[in-house]
Amino acid sequence: MFGFFKKKAVKKTITFNYESVAVDMHSHVLPGIDDGAQTPAESIVLIRKMMELGIKKIIATPHIMIDFYRNDRESITNALNILKAELKKENIVIDIEAAAEHYFDETFEARINNHQLMTMGDNYVLFEFSFISLPPNYIPVVEKLKSLGYRPILAHPERYTYMTLEQYKNLHDWGCDFQLNTISLTGYYGKEVKAMAEQLIDNQLIDFISSDMHHPRHVAAFRDALRTTYIEKLLFDYPLKNKMLL
Ligand SMILES: [Fe+2]
User: Fold this and answer.
1) What is the pLDDT of residues 173-232, one digit of tens each?
2) Distance CA 141, CA 33 (A)
3) Contact indicator for 216, 45 with CB cutoff of 8 Å
4) 71-79 long-range CB contacts below 8 Å, 24 or more apart?
5) Distance 101 CA to ligand 1 centre (A)
6) Centroid of ligand 1 to alpha carbon of 36 (angstroms)
7) pLDDT higher for 19 or 11?
8) Would you call 145 helix, strand, or coil by DSSP?
9) Looking at the predicted structure, is the pLDDT value of residue 13 above 90?
10) Domains, the chain, ordered by start
11) How far apart are CA 71 and CA 195, in angstroms?
12) How far is the CA of 125 from the centre of ligand 1 (A)?
């Protein structure tokens, strides 16, 4: 008799949540101004789920991207006010603010020079690179941000598959903080991104973690990330800075 004692895949039970992180500082929950929530009702669905997972404060970061999402302080503030009214109507009490996810395009440097950045906390600026190639001028621009008193945070470094660990280490050493999407740890963006996320964590290069929440599929992945072993490394005994934004 052949015994086929196949090990049953048991889904790890979630015994903790994002309560110790408290602040989610990268999401697209403002309604109707980028590729995230399109209506206040959609925003509310995402926010309720984030609260269920332990998030106490949300700093929404709509895209500012000249080719696709021409947001500015005015459009972002308007969307924030619409969302706040909806939250009030639904009797949901959560601390919510807005900043932006600045795309490193040809207008980014001009925005820096013209003081048009949407900052969070103590002058932090969240920005992202193209997923295709590294901007050749990224070092001088990061240095300019710092010389003007801004504190740059690179959004989801694990997702730029053209970058090497050495390049990340250098950029971090030059004073750029890194924000990891916890959903990367589930393999949501593929194996390569997951592997880089783990390497960045192992090399103590992560400063902030967040959801990068756009839609309900991200809710599921944000919850599933709590089942990974790497999230435990981040949530217990890792010097995350999210709470500095409370
Ligand atoms: Fe984002």
Assistant:
1) 999 999 999 999 999 999 999 999 999 999 999 999 999 999 999 999 999 999 999 999
2) 26
3) yes
4) 71/33, 71/34, 71/100, 72/116, 73/116, 73/118, 75/33, 76/30, 76/33, 76/100, 76/118, 79/30, 79/31, 79/32, 79/33
5) 6
6) 9
7) 19
8) helix
9) no
10) 18-245 (3.20.20.140)
11) 33
12) 13
The tally of CA atoms less than 13 A away on the side-chain side of residue 23 is: 20
Tokens 């002058």, residue? 123
The pTM of the full predicted model, rounded to 2 decimals, is: 0.94
Alpha-carbon radius of gyration of the chain: 18
Neighbours of ion ligand 1 (CB under 5 A): 101, 212
Distance 14 CA to ligand 1 centre (A): 25
The per-residue pLDDT for 66 is: 83
Q: How far is the CA of 43 from the centre of ligand 1 (A)?
A: 15
Give yes or no for a contact between 245 and 121, defined as CB atoms under 8 angstroms apart.
yes
Query: What is the distance in A from the centroid of ligand 1 to the CA of 8?
Result: 36
CA of 46 relative to ligand 1 center, distance in Å: 14
* Two structure tokens written together for 58: 């949300």
